[in-house]
Structure formats: structure tokens, C-alpha cells
TrEMBL record:
This is Malate dehydrogenase. CDD domains: MDH_glyoxysomal_mitochondrial. The active site is at H179 (proton acceptor). Pfam families: Ldh_1_C (PF02866), Ldh_1_N (PF00056). NAD(+) binds at G8, A9, S10, G11, G12, I13, G14, D34, N95, I118, S119, N120, M230. Residues 3-146 form the Lactate/malate dehydrogenase N-terminal domain. One of its GO terms (molecular function) is L-malate dehydrogenase (NAD+) activity. InterPro entries: L-lactate/malate_DH, Lactate/malate_DH_C, Lactate/malate_DH_N, Lactate_DH/Glyco_Ohase_4_C, Malate_DH_AS, Malate_DH_type1, NAD(P)-bd_dom_sf. PANTHER family: MALATE AND LACTATE DEHYDROGENASE, MALATE DEHYDROGENASE, MITOCHONDRIAL. Residues 148-323 form the Lactate/malate dehydrogenase C-terminal domain. Substrate binds at R82, R88, N120, R154.
Length: 330
């Protein structure tokens, strides 16, 4: 019996993500929350003949409390998306406060749930979330995840054009660091099966993964950013997490975590000088069971990419922590 929650469920990501969760036999209950339209989205999805019992809440009548009570996994795609010309950091002003408020709800009503943060800028919204949970005395680093799966999905997809692999799902490419531009570092040298990327194409491929989000923002031309591919990626991560929690072994996915509270995280923290970093993580009954260190094995080009990522992430993390400490609780 697994209760899943989507916060921001009426949005571009929230709706297709809720559809995928509703259709999955892994979930027995699905609660949708948004500031608009959730009764309609829930009524629509309720006609699908899968087992999950579905409810939709608005803020009125203790909506957040009713949504979150009893939740095992909370996925958060609430907040505004980019328009052309904006960086993810430009979203901070609005989304930081939205995420902070929703995490305060999680701390109060479902302190043991797995929390998956999609809202941008992920590099900062995850540190904000951790600080809120710490202040409430319920923080467990193993249960808080910044969702960077879309970067992995993009790397696995784009690499096929360069490697001759016909089926992208055949390639596993670790993508580490953060979730914005140069903080995204694909490790093609650690792909399985081994890839042979022509030297002259390497830079292009890296840039496509780092700036894949911009590609979609440009193409949508003011109507938002990636939603469908993000719903796919968010579902993929949620599904793997629940399968691992149910006892399936050997499930590893990159995700942006607080390194201190996860086994193996210390070593990565020493190497990066950062408290938060996305690395491949072995998932299990308690969530993030073990962070796997990919940093001792990178090639010279990846080492250069990592230097830029460390510099960018440091500021993003500090900004999130600062915000959490200096904004009063609601
Ligand atoms: N982590 C990742 O890889 C990705 C992250 N994103 C981020 O996901 C977020 C959502 O994107 P979209 O779904 O396209 O935006 P959207 O605008 O279509 O949907 C956002 C939803 O959040 C709701 N919302 C706003 N404030 C809320 C609150 N306080 N409580 C509950 N719901 C609230 C809105 O009503 C709306 O329905 C953006 O910040 C975007 O940048 C987008 C793509 C990939
Ligand atoms: O680019 C954006 O703003 C949305 C996002 O995070 C992505 O598509 O990776």
C-alpha cells in the first residue's frame, strides 16, 4: 500500500506525472494538490480503471494537510517555469517561497515520506527543503531527493546519435553535479556499455545535455519548459524508488542529495567541497542507501567540466540556505 502525492498537480508536469502514477500498479492511493483545478484533474483521472484511489485538494479546508497525511512519497513540481531568456536561477524569487511552504507542510504532516523536488532551481530548492526539515527536527538525508533524472534521460537519448546505439534505453550514462547549465556534468567515460564518441563531437554532445532544457524552452516559445519528458523522468525516478523500497535490489539512479547523511557521501563531500551533489545513488528500503563516488575515475575533459560545476553549485547552495534561514516560517 503506497500513497503518492503530487504538489503542483494541475500544471504542465503535474498532470502527465499524475497520469503515469495513476496508471501504475505500484500505487494504492494518489492525492493531488494545487492552488487551482485539482478537483477537475482528479475527477478526470478517477475514470481510469487502475487500483489507485484518487483525491484532489485545493488549499481551502485543510487541503494540504489532507493531501499529505499518510503520504509515502511526495513529488513536487509546483512553481513557475522558464520563458526564453531566463535562467533557472531567475525562478528562485518565486519558487523558493513556494517550495519552502510546501516542505513546511511535509515536515508537519508526513515527516517520514520520501520527498522528490522537481521545482527549479533544483540546485537551491533542495538545500531550502533540507533546511526547513532540519529546523522542524525531521530531516533525513536519505529521504530527500533533487530530481535530476531528466538530465540522465537526455544523455541516454542524445548519445545514440553519436554512438550508433539504436535503443537509447540500452545506454546508461551517469550525469552528476547539479541541474542547470554548466553544473550538469555527463560522464560519458563511465557509460555502460562503453561508448566510442568521436573526439570532434564530444563538446557538442556535452552542451546538448547541459542545455537540453533551453532547447525545449526555445521551442515552446514562451509557453513554458519541458513537461512531458519531465513527467516521464519524474515517474521513472519515483517508480525506481518505490521498487527499491519494496526490496528490489541493485537499483541505482543519479539524484541530487545532501551528502552528509548518506553512506559514501563523506568521500564525495571531501572531493567536491560541497554539501549537495548529484551522484549515482543505490536506492533501498530507507531511500538513498549509498552514494557511489564517480569522481576518482573521470577523464581530463570531465575534470574540467567538474571545476565549472563546483563553482556554480557553491553559490546556488549558499543562496538556498540563506533564504531558508532568513525567511520567517508561515
Ligand atoms: N527538475 C527538472 O528536471 C525540471 C524542473 N522543472 C520545473 O518544474 C516546475 C513546474 O513546471 P511546469 O509544470 O511546467 O509549470 P506549470 O506552471 O505548468 O505548473 C506549475 C503548477 O504549480 C502550481 N502551484 C503554484 N504555486 C503552488 C503552491 N503554492 N502549491 C501548489 N501548487 C502550486 C501552479 O498552479 C501550476 O499548476 C518549474 O519550476 C520548472 O522549472 C521543469 C522541467 C524539468
Ligand atoms: O529548462 C528548464 O527550465 C526546465 C528544466 O529544468 C529542464 O528541462 O531541464
Amino acid at each position: 500500500m503506497v500513497k503518492a502525492v503530487v504538489l503542483g498537480a494541475s500544471g504542465g508536469i503535474g498532470q502527465p506525472l499524475s497520469l503515469l502514477l495513476k496508471a501504475s500498479p505500484l500505487f494504492s492511493e494518489l492525492a493531488l494538490y494545487d492552488v487551482v483545478n485539482t478537483p477537475g484533474v482528479a475527477a478526470d483521472l478517477s475514470h481510469i480503471s487502475s487500483p489507485a484511489k484518487i483525491t484532489g485538494y485545493l488549499p481551502k479546508d485543510d487541503g494540504l494537510k489532507n493531501t499529505l497525511t499518510g503520504a509515502d512519497i511526495v513529488v513536487i513540481p509546483a512553481g513557475i517555469p522558464r520563458k526564453p531568456g531566463m535562467t533557472r536561477d531567475d525562478l528562485f524569487k518565486i519558487n523558493a517561497g513556494i517550495v519552502k511552504g510546501l516542505i513546511e507542510g511535509c515536515a508537519q504532516y508526513c515527516p517520514k515520506a520520501f520527498i522528490l523536488v522537481i521545482s527549479n532551481p533544483v540546485n537551491s530548492t533542495v538545500p531550502i527543503s533540507a533546511e526547513v526539515l532540519k529546523a522542524a527536527g525531521v530531516f533525513d538525508a536519505k529521504r530527500l531527493f533533487g530530481v535530476t533524472t531528466l538530465d540522465v534521460v537526455r544523455a541516454e537519448t542524445f548519445v545514440q546519435e553519436y554512438s550508433g546505439k539504436k535503443n537509447p534505453s540500452e545506454a546508461t550514462v551517469p550525469v552528476i553535479g547539479g541541474h542547470s547549465g554548466e553544473t550538469i556534468v555527463p560522464l560519458f567515460s563511465q557509460a555502460t556499455p562503453k561508448l566510442d564518441i568521436p573526439k570532434e563531437k564530444y563538446q557538442d554532445l556535452v552542451k546538448r545535455v547541459q542545455f537540453g532544457g533551453d532547447e525545449v524552452v526555445q521551442a515552446k516559445d514562451g509557453a513554458g519548459s519541458a513537461t512531458l519528458s519531465m513527467a516521464y523522468a519524474g515517474f521513472r525516478f519515483a517508480e525506481k524508488l518505490i521498487k527499491a523500497a519494496n526490496g528490489e535490489k541493485g537499483i541505482i539512479e543519479p539524484t541530487y542529495i545532501y551528502l552528509d547523511g548518506v553512506a559514501g557521501g563523506d568521500e564525495i563531500k571531501k572531493h567536491t567541497g560541497l554539501d549537495y551533489f548529484s551522484v549515482p545513488v543505490e536506492l533501498g528500503p530507507n531511500g538513498a542507501e549509498k552514494a557511489i563516488n564517480p569522481l576518482t575515475n573521470v577523464d581530463a575533459q570531465e575534470e574540467e567540466l567538474l571545476k565549472a560545476a563546483y563553482a556554480g553549485l557553491k553559490g546556488n547552495i549558499e543562496k538556498g540556505i540563506e533564504f531558508a534561514h532568513n525567511t520567517p516560517q508561515k
